[in-house]
Structures are given as structure tokens and as C-alpha cells.
Amino acid sequence: QVRLVESGGGLVQAGRSLRVSCAASPSTFGFSDMAWYRQAPGQQRELVADITSGGIRRYGDFVKGRFTISRDHAKNTVDLQMNSLKIDDTAVYYCNGIGPWGTQFWGKGTLVTVSS
Prior knowledge:
Blueprint: E1 3-7, E2 10-13, E3 18-25, E4 34-39, E5 46-51, E6 57-59, E7 67-72, E8 77-82, E9 91-98, E10 104-106, E11 110-115
């Protein structure tokens, strides 16, 4: 059974940094793209960042250079480093991976709360 497990969410003050991580199991499962999405209360889920197996990165427009997505193929993990956090970044952050034949896998999410 393929699982994605997020960690690292929590409460942080505006302007500070936070890193969320996602570990895939089994560690040998091959994903093509991996990504982070987020969903704020009452809003639709939106793409934060994604990274291909070749390391090409794409970010949501709202990121504006504040976040960095990284991937460790050996460990089958994907991290999101978030700097200069804003109150509007408060959301549940979900890990996503695309497996063979385009099958999508989702984690259960980790809550990030940014306070003033």
C-alpha cells in the first residue's frame, strides 16, 4: 500500500520560517512528479509547488520566491521550505505524488497556522 505521510506543520509567527516534509512508503515506489498543495478554510485546494523526477520546479504565483521545494530520491521524500510566512499561508498542506499510469496519491495533510 502506497502512503504519503506529512510532518512538520504547526503554529508559527508571520515573517518566520517553517519546513514541512513528506515521506513516501514504500521508499522504493517510483513517483514521477511530487507536489505540495494547500487548502485554506472555505477555499479550494491549490498548488503550492511541484517538482518533476528530473528536478524541474514550478510554484504557485502567490509563492513569489518565498518557498523552495526539494526532493530526495534515495529517501523518497519531498520537502517544502517556507520563508517569510504570511497569515494568508495558513492552510492544511497536502503532499501529492503521481505514480505509474498517472495515479495520484495524497497524504492526509499537515496544518500550518501563521499568527500575527
